[in-house]
Specification:
By secondary structure, the chain is mainly alpha-helical. The protein has four helices and no strands. Helix 2 packs antiparallel against helix 3. 9% of the residues are buried. This is Large ribosomal subunit protein uL29.
């Protein structure tokens, strides 16, 4: 995902995107241990996308604590 595409998203959408990407990254890492991934490069791409999202959130004044608090408050059941 390109940075200019991410900058067009609202804060709420960026936070949601961060948690979606983090969740997918975690699942792929677990899957990598148990089996061969069809596209191992996807892990690297996800890691970079997560960094891009966090960078834009930090530009907007979000700290790591604010991001995690939002995640706890809006956690899926």
């Amino acid at each position: 995902m390109k940075p200019f595409e991410l900058r067009e998203l609202s804060d709420e959408e960026l936070l949601r995107k961060y948690f979606e990407l983090s969740d997918e990254y975690f699942k792929l890492r677990i899957r990598k241990v148990t089996e061969t991934l069809p596209n191992p490069k996807r892990l690297t791409m996800l890691k970079r996308d997560i960094a891009r999202v966090l960078t834009i959130l930090r530009e907007r004044g979000y700290t790591k604590e604010k991001v995690l608090m939002w995640g706890r408050k809006n956690a899926r059941t």
